[in-house]
Fold:
Amino acid sequence: MQLLSLGASLITAIQVIYNLAGGRTICLNQGCEVVEKLTVLSPLYFNILGFFYFQAVFWTIRLLKSKFVSEFELTALLLFAGLAAEGVLLSYQIFAAQAICSYCILIFALVLLLNFVYSRKQFVTGVAVLIAISISFSLVTFAPARVSSQLHSLNEGSYGVKSCATPTKEIYLIFSADCPHCENVIKALDNCNSCDFHLNPIDKIKEFDVDGLELNQDYSPEVNRLMLSILGIKEVPVLVVKNNAGFSFLKGENKILNYVRNACFNRQPVLYFDPALNSEQEEITVITEDGGECSLELDCDDP
Structure:
């Protein structure tokens, strides 16, 4: 257990040093970037907390072994608390963020292994708590809060921005490169004069020819997929528009084209929404239609 806790301390210490040196968290997949955008604390502080946690485990083991600490089960309490915390973080990734951080899985595995080595009873009790946490997370929804927290990240998901002559509105098109309905919407952006369009693909773009597009080399398509998954949307194109009541999401080629023609070829800062469609009590509005969409899971036929 001392070796395990020291090894875990070393891993978190390396992450702290790497973060302080200006780098990002060392991670084997892109899920870490998605998860990091959903946390209040930065990865640096998470790793500092992890370092002190594993150090606390190490020193309580040594004190207990040397009998400086009597019969209080400090190690068991620390291990149990760590497992519960990791269970919450992992459940949030699975059911809320829908993105898994490989580094987080490693830390979770180390905490779980420490509980197993400590005692079989400790391990079984911890697993029971993990199951309870997971079930609880699966029964609740995080949609409104998650959407609000992610809207600021849409810029990070923009492949490029097409600026118009006199923009009064800023909108985001979430699309797929192989979706013909999305292509028709993008073609309609030519010569617009009152909207700045952010093009947000759901996957990596290899070749994309749009006149006047300012490219963002560091864009993250995972941000756009996360936004759709949060709202339970499984089709593209989707247009994200900020309005007085909050944010509106338009689905379907015809609905989006109708908005673009009325809102983006007009120099007046107006929004083309029927007020009856929007509730003043809701921050998120999804306006949809049948047809004019491509599924994220199935190939889309030409319209």
User: Anything to note?
Assistant: The longest strand covers residues 169-175.
